[in-house]
Specification:
Distance between the termini: 48 Å
Low-confidence stretches: 1-7, 92-96, 380-393, 395-489, 493-501
Structural class: alpha+beta
Organism: Ceratotherium simum simum (Southern white rhinoceros)
EC number: 2.3.2.27
InterPro entries: 6-blade_b-propeller_TolB-like (IPR011042), TRIM45/56/19-like (IPR047153), Znf-RING_euk (IPR027370), Znf_B-box (IPR000315), Znf_RING (IPR001841), Znf_RING/FYVE/PHD (IPR013083), Znf_RING_CS (IPR017907)
Strand content: 15-25%
Number of strands: 39
Number of helices: 15
Pfam family, one: zf-RING_UBOX
Mean pLDDT: 77
Keywords: Coiled coil, Metal-binding, Phosphoprotein, Zinc, Zinc-finger
Length: 771
């Protein structure tokens, strides 16, 4: 890339991809320039035009096609001139492997020219030594620049040849463009000047350029200023993102410490309450044992006396009964007069009384507040960001100490407050609790989190510092709702049956590694990923025209050779073979690079997504809104349109993958949705809801249970959907280090591999809910 303010050299323009068409990847032929200043072959543009419009394959801008067709787009004479220079350096007519003289055949008696040793830069002709000497001596050509042909072919005279090069008129071959018609803004040769522009004011090209160059330079200077501002804004955005991540890490630590402190206080209160309960039960049991012993003794005495009296009455004679009658009556009256207990002794039964915070689902001990991010200068003056976090932590520690000292205030079973609790509350204007009372609350039963759960949920919250609910800070401007920026708005919460239940997969970071190798001439641009053997991945680097192998630990395993000139886009592995798309072709090659077959695809699509079927013996490719499936022999096995023929022309599957259940999952840029369909094209589910944040859906991957992982590049997220395409929530965010994620793949059904735009790869292990 040419830096701002510097001029690109001619050598860079000739040796770069500037002269290659980004559609056919060949040298430009009849170059036409679109209003967005991107240049393509005229024939390639004709194949992209539909209904009077076409979309630029690079910037995706929609352009109206002129009524006369794509031929009416402006011809890029600049590119034509460079192409003429490249063709001249490559050589034209050859004889016995050497260039031939262009003037010898014009002389009588010579059927073919001799070997050329020089070149005239003005005539653009190769000359033999004799013709070169004569060229320098004639009156008409003695001012021409004749140079050595070997040096010319080596590029020594490119700049000088470029200065002497003249643009040719497309209507009159052999005539150079010399004039500019001012009313028509059209370039003219001498023939064009005669009719119909004879009466129009015209200027020589040099004079016209001198008149118009200042205006173009002024516009260019304005764009340079805009570029400088954009670069400064981009750097400021990166710095803001870095500060956000730093603050998020700090807040995450505060959340963990605060949650652990609350849990410690709660556990301490648990032990205290259980100790009180044990002491009460032990004292009650001791008193009950004493009462039981006394009752058993009294019962035994009374039972013995009653048994004796009953025997005397039933077995004794009259004289015996009468003789004992006095003693028995006295004893029985004595036993009847004892103070018997009518019932059990009063026993205090323990009851658990919960704080109102346990029963209030709207009570949160941990909440996030958001503040406007200050500029770096303002931050350097007062350091408000870090101080706010420290003050919040101090307030949280004070709240924890209050809980330890005062304990949880009891609540009576009938809902009334205890006197102690009633005295502790102070009336508020709107009924809100004071910060102190707020800090005294404990987490609700269904909202309490362990530190591990708090860490797992931190990526779903962005920025900000912790403050007690209802607390206010004079240094911060609060946002009562969610942030309205699309790039920072969290995804819609999962359904009630999944929220906080731990039923969703969670990411566990494994490793990160770059994909640029020492032999790469350019920065990698990863356009495709797929599994390749056990714990390996295959990376399609379109910029370096390579298929690279890496282990999941980041070890480079070599490359799979690709055919000459191919730039792999999307890639998939089959049984002992590799399938990939490049341009408008689908290739199947062996791991050693042998081409087994290739098939031509539609030119109306800039790129084609490739996915391997679960059986491993067929490959699917997206082509112009439908899906084609080929077998290992290259024969078309099936072809379908997601949603049936009624959807023809309404789909544009830019990314495609398959699930272990045999379904297809694609990112539809035409409908701006994620579509799930079976092998026959019947749509099972489709999502186009607010969880996409207005972005075009990106790369898709599916794990072994059918969960769909969707990349949203513009907001630096990977969200998760269920097997039928319903949004469940965020899986990866910028908190996990995502910066412009590009493509993903699933390895072994449990490793999600994510590539970034800078060529870095992150590997995450997908932790299933039941593991």
């Amino acid at each position: 890339m040419v830096s701002q303010g510097s001029s690109p050299s001619l050598l860079e323009a000739l040796n770069s991809d500037f002269l290659a068409c980004k559609i056919c990847l060949e040298q430009l032929r009849a170059p036409k320039t679109l209003p967005c200043l991107h240049t393509y072959c005229q024939d390639c543009l004709a194949q992209l035009a539909e209904d009077g419009h076409l979309r630029c394959p690079e910037c995706r801008e929609t352009v109206s096609v002129p009524p006369a067709g794509v031929a009416a787009f402006k011809t890029n004479f600049f590119v034509n001139g460079l192409l003429d220079l490249v063709r001249a350096r490559a050589g034209g007519d050859l004889r016995a492997g050497k260039p031939a003289c262009a003037l010898c055949p014009l002389m009588g008696g010579a059927s073919a020219g001799g070997p050329a040793t020089a070149r005239c830069l003005d005539c653009a002709d190769d000359l033999c030594q004799a013709c070169a000497d004569g060229h320098r001596c004639t009156r008409q050509t003695h001012t021409h620049r004749v140079v050595d042909l070997v040096g010319y072919r080596a590029g020594w005279y490119d700049e000088e040849a470029r200065e002497r090069q003249a643009a040719q008129c497309p209507q009159h071959p052999g005539e150079a463009l010399r004039f500019l018609c001012q009313p028509c803004s059209q370039l003219l040769c001498r023939e064009c000047r005669l009719d119909p522009h004879l009466d129009h004011p015209c200027l020589p090209l040099a004079e016209a350029v001198r008149a118009r160059r200042p205006g173009l330079e002024e516009l260019l200077a304005g764009v340079d200023n805009n570029l400088a501002e954009l670069e400064a804004t981009r750097m400021a955005e990166k710095e803001a993102l870095a500060r956000l991540r730093e603050q998020a890490a700090r807040v995450g630590t505060q959340v963990e410490e605060a949650a652990e402190g609350v849990l410690r206080a709660l556990l301490a209160q648990k032990q205290e309450v259980l100790g009180q309960l044990r002491a009460h039960v032990e004292a009650a049991e001791e008193a009950a044992r004493e009462r039981l012993g006394e009752l058993e003794g009294r019962e035994q005495v009374a039972r013995a006396a009653a048994t004796f009296a009953r025997r005397v009455l039933s077995l004794g004679h009259e004289a015996e009964i009468l003789s004992l009658e006095g003693a028995i009556a006295q004893r029985l009256r004595q036993l009847q007069g004892c103070p018997w207990m009518s019932g059990p002794s009063p026993c205090l039964l323990p009851q658990l009384e919960l704080h109102p915070g346990f029963l209030d689902k709207n009570c949160h001990l941990l909440r996030l507040s958001f503040e406007e991010q200050q500029s770096q200068k303002d931050t350097g003056k007062d350091g408000a960001g870090s101080q706010g976090g420290d003050e919040t932590q101090n307030r949280r520690e004070d709240g924890i100490k209050t809980e330890k000292q005062g304990g949880i205030q009891p609540q009576r079973r009938d809902g009334a407050q205890t006197p102690k609790e009633d005295r502790a509350q102070t009336p508020q204007e709107d009924g809100a609790q004071t910060p102190k009372a707020e800090r005294a609350q404990t987490p609700q039963e269904d909202g309490a989190q362990t530190p591990k759960e708090a860490r797992a949920q931190m990526p779903q919250e962005e920025g900000g510092a912790l403050t007690p609910r209802g607390g206010r800070s004079n240094k911060k401007k609060k946002f009562k709702g969610r942030l309205k920026s699309v790039s920072r708005e969290p995804s819609p919460a999962p359904g009630p049956n999944l929220e906080g239940s731990g039923l969703l997969p969670r990411p566990i970071f494994s490793c990160s590694f770059p994909t640029r190798m020492p032999g790469d001439r350019r920065s990698p641009r990863i356009t495709g990923l797929c599994p390749f053997g056990p714990r390996e991945i295959l990376v399609a680097d379109e910029q370096n025209r390579a298929l690279k192998r890496f282990s999941l630990n980041g070890d480079y395993k070599g490359a799979v050779p690709v055919p000459e000139g191919c730039s792999p886009c999307s890639v998939a592995t089959l049984q002992g073979a590799v399938a990939f798309s490049a341009g408008a072709r689908l290739y199947l090659i062996s791991p050693d690079g042998e081409v087994r077959w290739r098939r031509a695809l539609s030119l109306s699509q800039a790129s084609h997504a490739v996915a391997a079927m679960p059986s491993g013996d067929r490959v699917a490719v997206s082509v112009s809104g439908h899906v084609e499936v080929y077998n290992m022999e290259g024969s078309l096995a099936t072809r379908f349109i997601p949603g049936g023929r009624a959807s023809r022309g309404l789909r544009a599957l830019v990314f495609l993958t398959t699930s272990p259940q045999g379904n297809f999952v694609g990112s539809d840029w035409q409908q701006n949705s994620v579509v799930v369909c079976d092998g026959l094209g019947q749509v099972i589910g489709e999502y186009r809801g607010p969880g996409l944040h207005g972005c075009q859906p990106g790369s898709v991957s599916v794990d072994k249970k059918g969960y769909i992982f969707l990349t949203l590049r513009e907001v630096n997220k990977v969200v998760i959907l269920d097997p039928r395409g319903s949004l469940l929530g965020d899986f990866l965010t910028a908190y996990h280090g995502l910066e412009k994620p590009r493509v993903t793949t699933m390895v072994d059904g449990r490793y999600l591999v994510v590539s970034l735009s800078n060529g870095t790869i992150h590997v995450f292990r997908v932790r299933s809910p039941d593991s």
